[in-house]
Each structure stands twice: as structure tokens, then as C-alpha cells.
User: Fold this.
Amino acid sequence: QLQLVESGGGLAQAGGSLRLSCTASERTFSPYVMGWFRQVPGQVREFISDINWETGSTRYGNSVKGRFTISRDSAKNTVYLQMNSLKPEDTAVYLCAGRLRLRTYEYWGQGIQVTVSS
Assistant:
């Protein structure tokens, strides 16, 4: 069964940087889009960014535009989220997800904690 495994989270200071990675367990996995979301307890899951696996086109949520960058390495079946200029309000569990064309997100990682101290 396909698994998405996130890594790279942890603790950062405000203004600092972290890079998250998400790797699919199956080499044959060929998503249409891979995305990043974040979840804070008691709040709605927030869209952060996504990337078209074939074209590389990207989208970002307003709260992270200009600070976060999504990228992919198809050969490694990995999507990255470079997070710069971190703010305490970026503290959340970050989840990567994948979807196929014309489908909703159906593949999810287990989530990884990012904590930004002021």
C-alpha cells in the first residue's frame, strides 16, 4: 500500500528556515498533483502549496506566498517544501498529500510537527 512519509520538521526560531520532504513508498506512484497542508488543533486544515507533477506549475496559499517554495524530484519520488522567514503562526502539523487527475486528495502522509518559537 502506498505510503507518503514526511521528514524534516522540528523546531525553528522566528525568521529561520526548515525544509520538509515527502517521499512516496512506491516508485510507480505517478501523481497528478502533490500538495502540502497544515493542521492546527481546533482549526480547519489549511492549504499551503501544491505542484503539478508533470509540468511543475505551483500554487501557494496567501499566508505563505513569498516565504515557502514547493519543488519536486521525480527521480526520487519526493516533494519538498522549503520554508523561509518562519513565523510563530506557522506552527502546525504539516501533511503532504497526493492526488490523481480529476480526483480529490486521497493519499496522505502521517504529518510532521513544525514549531516556530518567537
